[in-house]
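FORM 12-B: Structure-to-Sequence Request
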């Protein structure tokens, strides 16, 4: 009993360490170890400001019934069409913490991404604790290279949607408990209301689970009933938003078959980016197929997200690339089991200490504390981002000192190419076309009329 208690303490202490490291390298280092800032800090692209401004507008309005007019080109009463969860979470956390919305929303993204790694650990642990511990450091790679840019460039709803997707994996693990449809239905609803496209990935995963159970003759009518009830519950909970979605996003961005090997102009993550670790992932995949009769949800989640991560080859375009931001978490199950079985071949009397030591070695390597060729590693991102205090003060001045129905025209500015930041003026606005303006300057012309765009 005493040994079990000590083992539990060691495991929990190590989990706290890894979770702290994830927050350190994801959020704290980028933010210069400050939780509160004078302006949106670490924002590197327009999409990040888009989400920040919308959350700020909801806080001002008190609800998300309509978009703020300065977000919808000056039109009032434009129905709020974006999935609302991330914005409501940001506003609630802003009130609770006293942080500005621009800090609150960014922190939530890093917090839930780190929590997703811990939740995946719990799922893998259900199959094998040692493999789960060894797999855990792989999560550090969500803050390496193109994946880290996914955070800084504002792919936040997708990242939060994937947190709830992993929560769904966990819910499926517990499908046998009484009234499990409530848990699964809530997670399905959260996915729809956070980033609706992730529901396609959720559906593919559920189909994979059902197919595996059918092939392995584990088909359970009660489980099917729970899944059906969960789907009905999710439809009821999201019915209002789904009506909006079907008449907005579904019309503007319908599914179209296409093959896009490269995500133009955006950070794309590829299997080759795992470098030498890909050998272990592939070994884990072979292990999955070799022992498919004893497979569990963690393996099915990994294989499903690997397959859907290549959805850019069958019509899912950038949504598939967004899914890859958390590939290090999804595919960690294959890495963990492969390394575990390799080490077990040499160490017969395996125990928890060996698991933690092996995990700690990979933690050190992936942090880059010891540099080893062909091993991917965390790369510290040090930048205040696009915004600075002077532009922020100017935008705040406009929002506080001009008539609410004023129209603002922005001429050229170095940071205005990330045009969603201009919405922080909280006024209907337009902007000179930067290409037209620069061409006029190069031609030594001052023009009476310039091409104008609505950002």
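FORM 12-B RESPONSE
SEQUENCE OUT:
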């Amino acid at each position: 009993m005493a040994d079990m208690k000590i083992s539990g303490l060691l495991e929990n202490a190590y989990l706290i360490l890894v979770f702290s490291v994830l927050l350190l390298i994801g959020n704290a280092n980028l933010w210069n170890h400050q939780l509160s800032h004078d302006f949106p800090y670490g924002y590197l692209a327009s999409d990040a400001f888009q989400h920040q401004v919308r959350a700020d507008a909801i806080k001002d309005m008190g609800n998300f019934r309509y978009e703020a007019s300065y977000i919808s080109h000056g039109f009032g009463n434009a129905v709020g069409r974006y999935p609302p969860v991330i914005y409501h979470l940001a506003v609630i956390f802003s009130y609770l913490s006293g942080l500005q919305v621009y800090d609150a929303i960014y922190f939530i993204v890093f917090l839930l991404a780190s929590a997703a790694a811990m939740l995946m650990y719990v799922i893998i642990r259900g199959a094998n604790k040692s493999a789960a511990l060894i797999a855990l450091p792989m999560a550090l790679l969500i803050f390496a290279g193109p994946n880290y840019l996914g955070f800084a460039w504002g792919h936040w709803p997708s990242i939060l949607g994937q947190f709830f997707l992993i929560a769904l994996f966990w819910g499926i693990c517990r499908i046998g408990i009484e009234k499990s449809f409530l848990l699964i239905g809530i997670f399905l609803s959260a996915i729809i209301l956070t980033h609706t496209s992730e529901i396609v990935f959720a559906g593919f995963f559920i189909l994979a689970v059902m197919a595996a159970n059918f092939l392995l003759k584990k088909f359970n009518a009660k489980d099917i009933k729970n899944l059906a009830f969960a789907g009905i519950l999710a439809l009821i909970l999201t019915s209002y938003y789904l009506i909006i979605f079907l008449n907005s996003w579904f019309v503007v961005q319908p599914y179209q078959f296409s093959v896009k090997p490269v995500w133009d102009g955006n950070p794309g993550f590829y299997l080759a980016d795992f470098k030498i670790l890909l050998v272990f992932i592939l070994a884990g995949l072979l292990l999955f197929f070799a022992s498919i009769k004893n497979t569990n949800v963690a393996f099915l989640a990994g294989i499903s997200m690997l397959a859907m991560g290549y959805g850019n080859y069958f019509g899912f375009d950038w949504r598939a690339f967004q899914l890859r931001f958390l590939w290090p978490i999804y595919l960690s199950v294959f890495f963990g089991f492969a390394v575990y079985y390799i080490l077990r071949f040499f160490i017969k009397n395996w125990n928890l200490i060996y698991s933690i030591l092996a995990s700690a070695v990979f933690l050190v390597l992936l942090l880059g504390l010891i540099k080893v060729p062909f091993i991917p590693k965390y790369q510290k991102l040090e930048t205040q981002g696009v915004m600075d205090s002077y532009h922020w003060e100017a935008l705040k001045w406009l929002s506080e000192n001009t008539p609410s129905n004023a129209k603002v025209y922005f001429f050229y500015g170095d940071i205005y190419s990330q045009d969603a930041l201009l919405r922080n003026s909280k006024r209907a606005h337009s902007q000179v076309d930067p290409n037209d303006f620069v061409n006029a300057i190069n031609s030594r012309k001052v023009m009476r009329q310039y091409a104008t765009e609505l950002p």
